[in-house]
Design goal:
Layout lengths: L6 H6 L4 H20 L9 H6 L15 H14 L30 H19 L8 H8 L15 H5 L9 H7 L18 H5 L1
Helix pairs in contact: 2-5, 4-8, 5-6
Length: 205
């Protein structure tokens, strides 16, 4: 569900306590998925899935712009959103290991408390989206993940540069071969979770 990021606009929606709780859980699932991608499964397209929670964001692209533009984004991603080692939890913040407890903090909250919690998440996503004048970095991702209650860290490591970007022609891994494989897809909306040319048959599977 797309929702505003302004507090008063959110309040005017008149969401019930149950709807507010579900909206928070929905956004947490997306942020957790974004955080938990590792190695060459990490991609800048994952950002669009976050931003779709905001009612003034564009939808995830259904088709690629150009291979050159996608490679520019991939190179920027590799440059600024990669770390040499996996992050470690903040020792001053309790880590919640049991996933079944990751939404326990919502149970005692009243409607106003949930509204403020949802507002904070919306604002955090907006801040991550609206970076201007510089590249998005791992520190921006870290700030995004801190909106979650569990204090579970991300692993920002990536494969070696040539392997991640896909320098080798004919390879079935890496950014360049992946984007190239979608350049001539014959469908209105590509499946960017799969390698290879999309056709009506592959979309039906």
């Amino acid at each position: 569900m797309r929702l505003p990021h302004d507090l008063e606009a959110l309040r005017e929606k008149g969401l019930t306590r149950t709807q507010l709780e579900e909206a928070i859980k929905e956004r947490r699932r997306t942020i957790r998925s974004h955080r938990d991608e590792t190695w060459d499964d990490r991609c800048h397209l994952d950002d669009f899935l976050l931003y779709e929670h905001l009612d003034d964001s564009p939808s995830t692209p259904s088709k690629l712009p150009t291979e050159e533009e996608m490679m520019r984004r991939c190179k920027e991603f590799y440059e600024y959103r990669r770390a040499e080692t996996a992050d470690r939890p903040d020792p001053d913040v309790a880590t919640i290991i049991d996933k079944r407890r990751w939404n326990e903090d919502l149970l005692p909250m009243d409607r106003e408390g949930l509204l403020e919690k949802l507002y904070r998440i919306q604002q955090t996503i907006k801040k991550h989206r609206d970076i201007d004048g510089r590249s998005r970095t791992v520190d921006d991702d870290r700030e995004l993940y801190r909106v979650l209650p569990e204090n579970v860290m991300a692993d920002f490591r990536l494969p070696p540069r040539d392997k991640f970007l896909g320098k080798d022609e004919g390879s079935c891994s890496g950014c360049r071969p992946f984007w190239k494989s979608h350049q001539d897809c014959s469908v209105k909306r590509c499946n960017f979770t799969a390698f290879g040319r999309c056709t009506q048959e592959t979309r039906r599977r």
